[in-house]
Amino acid sequence: IVPLVRRLIGEPTMTVNPEQLVFGPVAVGEQASLPLTIKNEGFGNVGLIIKSFEVSDETVRIDDPPPQALLPGQEHAAAAVYEPIEPSYVQGVLTVEAVDRSIEPIEVPFEGTSIPEGRLVTIPEDTLLVGEISVGNTEMVPLELANIGSEPVEVLDLSFNPGPATATATVTGTINPIND
Known about the structure:
Layout: E1 10-11, E2 14-17, E3 21-25, E4 32-40, E5 43-44, E6 50-55, E7 60-63, E8 75-82, E9 89-98, E10 106-113, E11 120-123, E12 144-147, E13 153-155, E14 158-160, E15 167-169, E16 173-175
């Protein structure tokens, strides 16, 4: 009699798709679900076991996680669910961690909104740094406008009053909500 010993050959490699989750507008009390596919792209006969899904905001969760090890070439479609409990804009990170510590955790950024109307914000939000400007000169500063609400915002004019100086810009157009 010759005893047979099962040997583990290869290594698991974890991939997660999509690389970003954009839930878009979702009313308070409703939910939106997006597919989140976890795949073992490794080789051999070593399975990938997911240890945890950590989310940075309580309004996002993972339903239907992989029930067992994923062998090389196998994938599992879980559901990323956004269920807002109050009107707000949510931006955060979902971290997928494998049991095998040699596999780096994968971070998936997410965003969604439950603000019922359009809401315009500037990026950066707080401060525009332009440095010193001589009298009579102008300075261009990049500024991004984003709509974190659920309805489009129409912009006709934009002005800033940062103190003793005033900056103005003429902007026309409609800024749609995220994922629109």
